[in-house]
Amino acid sequence: MRCPYCSHLEDRVMDSRLSQDGSVTRRRRECLACLKRFTTYERIEETLPLVVKKDGTREPYDRGKVLSGIKKACEKRPVGIDDIEKALDRLETRFSETGEKEIPSSVIGEAVMEELRALDEVAYVRFASVYRDFRDINEFMKELRELIDLKKKKD
């Protein structure tokens, strides 16, 4: 593991812990050169399908892109990074369990919206407004009405 401070390649593991669900290992490391400490996370590399974009192009699934979109939607909302990471882990498990080699970006977008709806309704509406490309206030209000109706059904 390369030290993020001095780029030295040798370190020692100070502490290792599993996440609650056991899917991620957190390791505290100390660089043997500069003696600074840093944290790494290990997860099993799952083979995720290629993403088929709207224009038909294909690209590898990028966790960073999905994470960035979710973080933007959750900005200034009471949603912790741990909750975001768990949602992202659930999404990736869902995508890999399909067994498909390709997945349309629209499926990813809809799945992200489902996770955000459960996390924070405002974040959900923010993401939906960008993802669904609302053109005017009427489209926005329609989405809000659907969200309100879903909430009423749950109550």
Mean pLDDT figure: 89
What is the H/E order?
EEEEEHHEHHH
Secondary structure: number of strands: 6
Task: Flag low-confidence runs.
Answer: none
| Major sheet: arrangement of strands | 1-2-3
Structural class: alpha+beta
Shape: elongated
Number of domain modules? 2
Topology:
Layout: E1 11-18, E2 24-31, E3 37-43, E4 50-52, E5 58-59, H1 63-74, H2 81-97, E6 102-104, H3 105-119, H4 121-131, H5 137-154
Helix pairs in contact: 1-2, 1-4, 2-3, 3-4, 4-5
Q: What's the short version?
A:
With 155 residues, the protein is α+β, with helices and mostly antiparallel strands. The chain has helices spanning 63-74, 81-97, 105-119, 121-131, 137-154; strands at 11-18, 24-31, 37-43, 50-52, 58-59, 102-104. Helix content is 47%, strand content 20%.
Provide tags for this entry.
elongated, 155 residues, 3-stranded antiparallel sheet, 3-stranded mixed sheet, alpha+beta, 5 helices
How would you portray this structure in words?
It is a single chain. This protein is of the alpha+beta class and 155 residues long. The protein has 2 domains: 11-43; 50-154. Helices cover 47% and strands 20% of the residues. The protein is built from 5 helices and 6 strands. Strands 1-2-3 form a 3-stranded antiparallel beta sheet, with no helix packed on it. Strands 5-4-6 form a 3-stranded mixed beta sheet. A hairpin with a 5-residue loop joins strand 4 and strand 5. Helix 4 (121-131) runs antiparallel to helix 5 (137-154). The N and C termini lie far apart (50 Å). The mean pLDDT is 89.
